[in-house]
Amino acid sequence: MLTLTDLTASYPEQSQCFSLTAAPGTITALIGPSGAGKSTLLAMIGGFARVEAGELHLNRQNLLPLTPAERPITTLFQDNNLFWHMTVYQNIAIGLNTTLKLTPTQQQRVSEVADKVGLSGLLQRKPAQLSGGQQQRVGLARCLVRNRPVLLLDEPFSALDPALRFELLQLLREQTDKLGLIVLMVTHHPAEAAGIADQIIYIHNGCIFEQGDNSLLQAPKSRELSHYLGRENNGE
Ligand SMILES: Nc1ncnc2c1ncn2[C@@H]1O[C@H](COP(=O)(O)OP(=O)(O)OP(=O)(O)O)[C@@H](O)[C@H]1O
């Protein structure tokens, strides 16, 4: 279980404070207006943003003293950080070892993960020879090959067309279930989030305003969430 207790970032314009839990095998979608604090939340968990106060645990392990590389976490950003001069195989392998010198077992693992995400026939290509959806699959494969229990996704599929986004979200759902991953995903597409997420968290002005399952989007309690979803005020 990933547990955040009053995890706080303090920026000059906005302070942000989050408490939540996320279980293995679940996807938590983070939604909310631009500037609400979604990326900051992921950055604090990943170790890329300064934490002012609060606690962050995976099971009983305190993650705050750990550097990003030491945390049992991997992050996929929208700009998937592919290396354009390397092959697909190397782009995945670099998730395991930055020198690309892999043991036979690690090489086997790269092939297995590539297979899982539907890239097995494309391992010798360069990213420029792939479609946008295939490039994102490479980014996802690089995260999965690391075999870390927590996966953070910051709008990874938002530049893709709806059909490809849907395909990658299905793939994500499948891998989350199979591997028992704890996935936190920022998305600007609430309806899609509702399609695959177990838990939806609405962030507004640096804090969690509402959280729940998919029904949250059918019946928002706050004006803020209604407004964000583009609905009329519900009269409260
Ligand atoms: N390094 C930083 N230094 C100072 N302020 C920051 C920093 N990073 C983010 N902020 C501020 O924190 C607030 C939340 O930003 P954040 O990027 O987390 O929002 P977001 O919900 O991810 O937005 P978007 O959907 O546009 O990506 C904003 O007011 C932003 O200006």
From TrEMBL:
A GO CC annotation given for this chain: membrane
A molecular-function term among this protein's GO annotations: ATP hydrolysis activity
Xref: InterPro entries: AAA+_ATPase, ABC_SmlMolc_Importer, ABC_transporter-like_ATP-bd, ABC_transporter-like_CS, P-loop_NTPase, Thiamine_ABC_ThiQ
One family name in Pfam for this protein: ABC_tran
Superkingdom classification of source: Bacteria
A GO biological-process term: thiamine transmembrane transport
UniProt entry keywords in alphabetical sequence: ATP-binding, Cell inner membrane, Cell membrane, Membrane, Nucleotide-binding, Translocase, Transport
Residue span, ABC transporter domain: 2-230
Protein name, per record: Thiamine ABC transporter ATP-binding protein
Gene that encodes the chain: thiQ
